Amino acid sequence: MAMVVPEGWPREVLSDDQHAAPQRTVIEAGQLVIHADFPLATRHRIVRELEQLRVDVSDRLALPISDEPIHLYLFEHRERYEAYAAATFPGFPSRRAFFVKSDTSLSVYAHWQDRIAEDLRHETTHGYVHAVAGNVPLWLDEGIAEYFELPKSDRRVHREHVDRLAGKLLEGTWQPDLQRLEACVDAGLLTQDHYAEAWCWVHWLLETSAERRVVLQDMLAETRRDPAAAPLSVGLARSEGGLAAASQDLVDHLLQLEKQATGR
Ligand SMILES: [Zn+2]
Q1: What is the distance in A from the centroid of ligand 1 to the CA of 1?
Q2: How many angstroms does the Cα of residue 264 sit away from the middle of ligand 1?
Q3: How far is the CA of 241 from the centre of ligand 1 (A)?
Q4: How far is the CA of 263 from the centre of ligand 1 (A)?
Q5: 211: CA distance to ligand 1 center in Å?
Q6: Is residue 123 domain-shared with residue 180, that is, in the same domain?
Q7: Share of the chain above pLDDT 70, in %
Q8: Is-contact 72 116, C-beta < 8 A?
Q9: Separation of 92 CA from ligand 1 center, angstroms?
Q10: Is the pLDDT of residue 228 over 80?
Q11: How far is the CA of 126 from the centre of ligand 1 (A)?
Q12: Fewest CB within 10 A of the end CB: N or C in the chain?
């Protein structure tokens, strides 16, 4: 999840131990400055993987690399993480991890648990993207982060999303609709269905043809130049011969991923 906070945030927080940001270990890794409240090895697998992610995101999306620091605040215990998040960012939906962009900083907050690698890949992707492209539409920002949260070795196929969407499609309770996604502007209102569909469009764009990858890359480049750039649906309708054709191809891609998974 990515949140943009107004000027003056993060709010000044209570300075007692319970509400201090982690500082016990500080590691610099490329663009990342990692602050943990527990001992964390400089060459931890997750740290190396997050460094590599910077190159993957840049290559795949044809985005430049930035040196703007991204701060990762890692909490060993959930209670402390939750207390810190509630005091510092009141009103934010509670999540295992989140990304915050202010006028002056890019920050990720997370607590160390079983899915930390995936969570950090997701939130750090937001950081890498926002460091160079600040006006990416909400749905696309999340779709890109969902895509890169998967390890490369899984070809970034998001099993949960594939199952969810394929199931709903067969039930007749879901159809892709890019313009409906583009109309979502409130991060707090995004549901798992939105995340799943956003992932699906990004996976389809990046994994099915070089031409589609370029449509996405061009749109991101345009967004960097012009915050009011045309939405992706406009470019796709042109390149695919209409949005209905694009949606149908997306559905075919989804069903093929589902078939591969179930061996049917
Ligand atoms: Zn996100």
Answers
A1: 3
A2: 32
A3: 31
A4: 31
A5: 26
A6: no
A7: 94
A8: no
A9: 13
A10: yes
A11: 7
A12: C
Structure tokens at 175: 């159809």
Spacing, Cα 108 to ligand 1 middle (Å): 10
pLDDT band at 7 (very low <50, low <70, confident <90, very high): low
**Distances in whole angstroms, Cα of residue 89 to Cα of each of 101, 109, 141:** 12, 11, 21
Task: Give a yes or no: residue 138 inside a domain.
Answer: no
Distance 72 CA to ligand 1 centre (A): 14
The label of the residue with tokens 């067969």 reads 170
Distance (angstroms) between ligand 1 centre and the Cα of 122 equals 6
142 lies in a domain? Answer: no
The rounded Å distance from CA 99 to ligand 1 centre is 7
Residue-wise pLDDT for 230-264, tens only, equals 999 999 999 999 999 999 999 999 999 999 877 65
Residue 13 has pLDDT above 60, yes or no: no
For the sheet containing 70-75, what is the strand order?
Answer: 2-4, 97-101, 106-111, 70-75, 32-36, 25-29
Identify the domain containing residue 108 by its residue range: 2-132
Domain CATH number, residue 117 = 3.40.30
Say how many domains are in the chain: 2
Contact at 8 Å (CB) between 146 and 195? Answer: yes
Does the pLDDT at position 12 exceed 60? Answer: no
Q: What is the pLDDT of residue 213?
A: 98
DSSP for residue 113? S
Residue ranges of alpha helices (H) inside the chain are: 45-61, 78-88, 116-132, 138-148, 159-171, 178-182, 192-207, 210-225, 232-240, 243-262
pLDDT digits (tens, 9 = 90+) for 69-112: 999 999 999 999 999 999 888 888 788 999 999 988 999 999 99
